[in-house]
């Protein structure tokens, strides 16, 4: 039974001699040739004191090595504004709010589609069919256009401004044909 418990804690191929575990392999083989076959980089090879190259002095005519300048004596540079770098990620509340408002805008587009299709017969009595179709498609696309426009124009601005504009746009884009007629059966 003990052998079965040990099997649960091991993985097939754990005893592979090409694996680098930081210790010598059980067979005492040098794993260096296996590393060359797998394409391991020089940085992944652990160094032992015998492998460390001797420190040599630079040639007589070469310039001295550069050392980092301490922060106190570094030349003053203009600070980089925060907006020039990558924008800070949004917090979870903002992401969830944008998701909910995006869903509301999707429902508004669906409402304009359904409401406009219910009024199509009546509206075509007073308008040309092509004119009605164009205005209906614009009404269906308007929620998506407003949502994307608010997101793009308020990039880098305060979050509350973005939310206020999205809520105001949702109220302005209420699908009145859908609210007045409903989803009644023809």
From TrEMBL:
Q: Which keywords, in A-to-Z order, does the entry hold?
A: Membrane, Transmembrane, Transmembrane helix
Q: Where is the composition biased (Low complexity)?
A: 69-84
Show the ranges annotated as biased composition (Acidic residues): 8-18
Question: Keyword Transmembrane: yes or no?
Answer: yes
> Record's superkingdom?
Bacteria
Residue ranges, compositional bias (Basic and acidic residues): 32-50
TM ranges are 93-114, 134-152, 164-185
Region: Disordered; residue ranges are 1-84
Name of the protein in its database record: DNA polymerase III subunit gamma/tau
